[in-house]
Amino acid sequence: MGIPVSYSLRNLSTRRLTTTLTTSGMALVAFVFATTLMLAEGLRKTLVNTGSYDNGIVLRRASNSEIQSGIDRYQASVVETQPEIAIGENGQRLVAKEMVVIINLQKRGSEKPSNVTIRGISNQSLLLRQQIKLVKGRMPKMGSSEIAVGESIARRFKGCDIGEKLYFGMRNWTIVGIFSAGNTGFSSEIWGDTDQFMQAFRRPVYSSITFKLRDYSEFHKLKERIGNDPRLTLEAKREVKYYADQSELMTKFLSILGLSLTAIFSIGAMIGATITMYAAVANRTSEIGTLRALGFQRMSILVAFLMESMLMSFIGGSLGLFFASFMQFLTISTLNWQTFSELAFSFTLTMEIAYKSIIFSLIMGFIGGVLPAYRASKMNIVEALRAR
Amino acid sequence: MLKLIFRNAFRHKLRTCLTILGITIAILAFGILRTLVNAWYSGVEASSSARLITRNAISLVFSLPLAYKEKIRGIPGVKNVSYAIWFNGTYISEKNFIPNFAIDPKTFLELYPEYTLPEDQKAAFFRDRMAAIAGRKVAERFSWKIGDTIPLKGTNFPGTWNFILRGIYHGAEKSTDETQLFFHWDYLNESLKKTAPNRADQVGIYIIGITNPNLAPEVSEAVDKTFKNSLAETMTETEKAFQLSFVSMTEAIVTVIQLVSFMVIIIIIAVVANTMVMTARERIGEYAIMKTLGFGGWHLAILIFGESLFITMVGCTLGILLTFPSAKIFGAKIGAYFPVFHVSANTIFLDIGAALLVSLIAAIFPTWHAVKIRVAEGLRRIG
């Protein structure tokens, strides 16, 4: 027969201040734990969603990002005619030969210049990327000085609203559309006609070729053929993998930072819990004696005190998670070290992160409470009753 | 009084030790985080105000023609000009990140006196076209010796490039980056002329030494004006501004780290306050007795504050002492990303300030409680 849970609960409410302090410490730790996971998750989602599962991308060998890559027109035409590439409804091959450059634009508000990716697109670019939706206006006409900007660019950079003109590459470009690319890296890009951009930037090479596969499983054949072709200095990657590689460094950095912080924080919180629980045990020595005298087992005493500490941590964890869930409204923009361009992503809360945070707080409560609870259960009945 | 504080602090050995441990860890974390933020700005710290950086106005990705060099040199206020290209080769695997640049050796080393090289190594570096020099840290990391061949796999410039290490430079100051590798721009250019003629005779940035730092705005403007409406317009700014622009792009992360370092402080406040509240609660009876004996509220306040201060300061000292070795370990682990990682005096002062703040805030509540307590009520608790 165990001691009822209500005993543990009511004990918590007797010493309100101490409980509040300890719980808020726990809540903070859970908050930090959850937000760092959310950050890494948000970044991963943004970058991985950028790629589609049955798309491939071709870049110059040994280049880690589109910026470093260069593919001349001749090589591009070889890639274009590979048999594994899917054919669209109008009989055209689903291949997008694109060029990517980076320019500096000023942010709204802070006036600070930041790097923005400019992508020269071809007719098929939109077909290959199902996640792109027009929000306002229209897509740029091929062969004109029109551009469309991603949502997060329109929001965060000066002079990037519809109808405004941007000046780069010695020309004025009119913004005719704003597109949304969901939670992907494309939202931080500016799109226009490849050939126009090549002219403007005097850069007569493509950066990458994206294509849709006829059949998902045929990728390795194409990869091998492109890799072994003596005319080509290129390599093919699955788009999903390419974008995951891009985020590797950042994700790694964030998770190392997050985990080391959480580790340090949790030690602090556990110490707080231990102190609180020891005091609770010390204050209630005679109570424990009474309980034991009434015939409760050592085990039930141990469980009762552990319960108390875990309840405290559970409340703390839930609070922390509650506040962390508000972080979803925040967008963070930072420089992606691997592509050298600005990237915006938001905190993403998943079920997995939610239960991980709660479990993590419970573990903290358990570790913090186990020593004091053990001490309480080990007490000698007579001595305990004698204590005041 | 002091004796009383000291004895009081250790009445509850376990609790006090746990609290001190908590503070130690928190101060340690705080110190490391501050150091990390400083490391972020190390490039800015190391830059000189007497140097300007000229880059392509579109963005750093675009290059500038070599022909600009002489034009820039002719601008009044310019002392000397050098140029460099961000080569971005990888050494063996991408994990070994080494910043590597193709430079014009003579002018570059003139402009950067903080990279100190022994004279014979300098001469050897100038003489040999395939020569490279590397910073002390990076040479130690891969245990390179003078005369070793260092292969770099090109990313921006395809192929494998072999360099012969002719010198190892040391930083003249603590903030100097000792993780870079420099080689001859000519070596790169010769090869580009053969393989990619349209990319030859181009440089990434121009570094301009000016006669007087106060001339920076005028010179920058003059340089940019010279190349206005050309195919490659320039943007010139001081080296500090140039470095800051990199940092500001990653500002979000820095802000997060700073926020977190303050959160650490809040958590210790909670832990210490918790300890102090309990201590005070246990000693209500004593306080009542002391009041009966004629000690005033001030005495009690000093007692409680003193104890809180004592505990936090012990923890703080331990934390600061531990910061140095752990910063060393940390620095070794992430040295690839942060060339400079050392604990500054400023960090130590912040540590101490934070600890003081914690001890004061934590003691307020229990003190107020103890001072307010009515003697009769307090005495009732003594059995």
Helix and strand topology:
The complex is a heterodimer of chains A (388) and B (383).
Chain A: H1 5-14, H2 16-50, E1 55-60, H3 73-80, E2 95-106, E3 113-121, H4 125-128, E4 133-137, E5 146-150, H5 151-156, E6 165-168, E7 171-180, E8 189-193, H6 194-201, E9 208-212, H7 219-228, E10 234-238, H8 239-283, H9 285-293, H10 298-325, E11 331-336, E12 341-346, H11 351-377, H12 381-386
Parallel strand pairs in A: 3-8, 5-7
Antiparallel strand pairs in A: 1-9, 1-10, 2-3, 2-9, 4-7, 5-8, 6-7, 11-12
Chain B: H1 2-9, H2 13-40, H3 42-46, E1 51-56, E2 64-65, H4 68-73, E3 78-86, E4 100-103, H5 105-111, E5 115-116, H6 119-127, E6 131-135, H7 136-141, E7 149-153, E8 160-171, E9 181-184, H8 185-195, E10 202-203, E11 205-210, H9 216-226, E12 234-238, H10 239-249, H11 251-282, H12 284-292, H13 297-333, H14 345-372, H15 375-380
Parallel strand pairs in B: 4-9, 6-8
Antiparallel strand pairs in B: 1-11, 1-12, 2-10, 3-4, 3-11, 5-8, 6-9, 7-8
Helix pairs in contact in B: 1-13, 2-11, 2-13, 2-14, 11-14, 13-14
Notes on the protein architecture:
- Chain A: Keywords: Cell membrane, Membrane, Transmembrane, Transmembrane helix.
- The complex is a heterodimer of chains A (388) and B (383).
- Chain A has helices spanning 5-14, 16-50, 73-80, 125-128, 151-156, 194-201, 219-228, 239-283, 285-293, 298-325, 351-377, 381-386; strands at residues 55-60, 95-106, 113-121, 133-137, 146-150, 165-168, 171-180, 189-193, 208-212, 234-238, 331-336, 341-346.
- Chain A is an alpha+beta fold.
- In chain A, 49% of the residues are buried.
- Chain B has helices at 2-9, 13-40, 42-46, 68-73, 105-111, 119-127, 136-141, 185-195, 216-226, 239-249, 251-282, 284-292, 297-333, 345-372, 375-380, and strands at residues 51-56, 64-65, 78-86, 100-103, 115-116, 131-135, 149-153, 160-171, 181-184, 202-203, 205-210, 234-238.
- In chain B, strands 1, 3, 4, 5, 6, 7, 8, 9, 11 and 12 form a ten-stranded mixed β-sheet that branches. Chain B has a two-stranded antiparallel sheet with strand order 2-10.
- In chain B, a hairpin with a 6-residue loop joins strand 7 and strand 8 (160-171).
- The mean pLDDT of chain B is 87.
